[in-house]
Amino acid sequence: MFLNKSYYKTNFQLAFPIILASMGQSFVQMVDTIMVGRLGTTELAAVAFAGSVSYNALVVGMGIAMALTPLTGQSYARGEHKISSILLQNSISLNTIISLVITAILLLLMPFLKYFGQPKEVIEICYPYYFIIALSFIPQLIFLSFKQFMEGVGNTKPSMIITISANLLNVVLNYLLIFGKFGFPHMGVTGAALATFISRLLMPVAFVIYLYMKANYKRYLSFFSFSNLSKYYHIKLLRLGIPIAGQMFLEFFSLLGVTVMMGWVSTQALAAYQIVITIVGTTFLIASGISSATTVLISQAFGVNNMKELNNQFKTGFQLAFLTMSCMAFILIIFGRYIAMIFSSDEEVIEIARGFFIVAGVFQIIDGSQVSVLGGLRGINDVAKPMKYALIAYVFVALPFAYICGFVFELGSWSIFAGFLAGLLTAAILYYSKFRKVVRKYVSIENKTIE
């Protein structure tokens, strides 16, 4: 049953800048893939492998950063602007520490990359790309503190503007540094990483300048003080952020497992998978943006104990995600081969990718559904159980299914990707059951209070 159109309009107005900003970031990754793909299949496979390993560490920081959004949304709805500012300040401090730890771990992991069973030529090329991308996570996580804060107060446009601007710079630098144009050095894969690092370095700087220029938001910076940095707020953010990070890490860890399995099959299978996962990651951002908007709207309703509004916002987000991802699924299934031809001229890679895109169509619908429910759970600060459910779905279901389909039954490389769907469906069912259970509990408490 559909709700009043104002609900869908409100959600999409909030989600659209998030989607556009995320799409911009994904567009840069896509351009990286296209440009690197022109260098060769081995180079494309190297970027796929290095990106998969490093991104699994980044999602930990991203998950912890995301804790700021619902907490800010709840305090903002209650008019507690100083508390919102204190949360932002502590988030910046916490994310800086976490980014340094993540980068250090990734650099310590470098000597062990050769033990992942990937082709030797892929490992040799990926080292410099991996190193620079790891360093770029430091400014990126600091930027996320500002981004998640602004989402919490219901203004998603600044992040969009800054991200898109940085991404345009990244594209230009990609062209100059990958291929050595206009007197710049020909750096190949390393040039793609350096372009990403420079653009990410400028993003938090741009956000600070923006906040100082806007009177409505400058007041939040005026509350900044060393006395506001506290163990209490760091722990508050970690208690909500660590389970979110855990859930995200487990999902991306399982995707890393799929990536590694593709490398066991062949360099062509790994390159084809990189093409498909780049596209799927981009279209998924539509559902992810809607989920983020749902988190904000639900957190604000939850902050003032309006359960009816909370339910309506959840239903709105779920319906929008399902419909949009169904449309994306249709496009990928019908035009998968032609999309693959944009990225590679290798006929074997294109044919493998075509099969992957059919699987990706089903993937889109299920993934869109599960992330919309996660948005609702985060809005009501319920994140512990989803992390446990993610362990079940992605480690104990997805990875075994992928391995069995691909290497026990030997159904082909496409079946490794298809096996992952079993875990994704398990997660969607468990998340939805949990959300309905929690909401029923709060509604029951509210009814007793009224009586």
How many helices in DSSP terms? 14
The global form is globular
Task: Give the beta-strand count.
Answer: 0
- SSE pattern: HHHHHHHHHHHHHH
Distance between the termini: 29 Å
| Biggest pleated sheet | none
Question: Structural class, please?
Answer: mainly alpha
Helix content: over 70%
Give the strand content.
Answer: under 5%
Q: How much is the radius of gyration in Å?
A: 22 Å
Which whole number gives the mean pLDDT? 86
Low-confidence stretches: none
Number of domains: 1
Description of the structure:
- This protein has 451 residues and is mainly α.
- It has one domain.
- It is 87% helix and 0% strand.
- The protein contains 14 helices and no strands.
- The protein has helices at 5-39, 41-66, 68-77, 81-109, 120-152, 157-179, 189-213, 215-222, 231-265, 267-303, 307-343, 347-379, 384-408, 413-450.
- Helix 1 (5-39) runs parallel beside helix 6 (157-179), helix 3 (68-77) runs parallel beside helix 10 and helix 6 runs antiparallel to helix 7 (189-213).
- The longest helix has 38 residues, at 413-450.
- The mean pLDDT is 86.
Short description:
This protein has 451 residues and is mainly α. Helices cover 87% and strands 0% of the residues.
Element layout with pairings:
Layout: H1 5-39, H2 41-66, H3 68-77, H4 81-109, H5 120-152, H6 157-179, H7 189-213, H8 215-222, H9 231-265, H10 267-303, H11 307-343, H12 347-379, H13 384-408, H14 413-450
Helix pairs in contact: 1-2, 1-6, 1-10, 1-11, 2-4, 2-5, 2-9, 2-10, 3-4, 3-5, 3-10, 4-5, 5-7, 6-7, 9-10, 9-13, 9-14, 10-11, 10-12, 11-12, 12-14, 13-14
